[in-house]
């Protein structure tokens, strides 16, 4: 049963939040890294995006928290399904977010939308089952949540609207709007746990993301 729902989009510190939740005893935490390379999980989210019935208990079996895409895109049904769960909304300056996303997560859908790679790589990402399944899932979810533009204006408009929807849709007593640069204190206070005697975790910077992404293109997993 989920205790924490992360509603922030990728490149807002979602992997740092994942590591923090695990350290605080709210793990395992479901993150995009738990999806990539697992075709049955691609199918879960394609079903969600297409409005098919989904057994949320099956999707999150073994997990206590969730953060990042694609789960964060469905914060509303998850909040309704798990009424006692708290919502942590990671966010950052929209311009900073766009620059980070442009160099990392936006490269994934763009590989199949414009000629940014040579024919061998384009063939790999469309024919190999791991990248193909990933792109199918991201396309289905992206269309469902209205995230179909990756230019600066369109992407930032979507990001701002997403933030506003969360702030308007989550009761104040269940919501923490959180910048991971704030560290442990606001997160621990919100979750009602002591601050650990350890540095706040940082993860998935742009260089780390690119290294893992190349592994995915070769048919591996994100971890």
Automatic annotation (TrEMBL):
Assigned keywords, A-Z: Transferase
Recorded hits in InterPro entries, A to Z, give:
P-loop_NTPase, Sulfotransfer_4
**Transferase is among the record's keywords:** yes
Q: Coiled-coil ranges per the record? A: none
Which SUPFAM superfamilies does the annotation name?
P-loop containing nucleoside triphosphate hydrolases (SSF52540)
* MF (Gene Ontology): transferase activity
Keyword Transmembrane helix found: no
Stated name of the protein = Sulfotransferase family protein
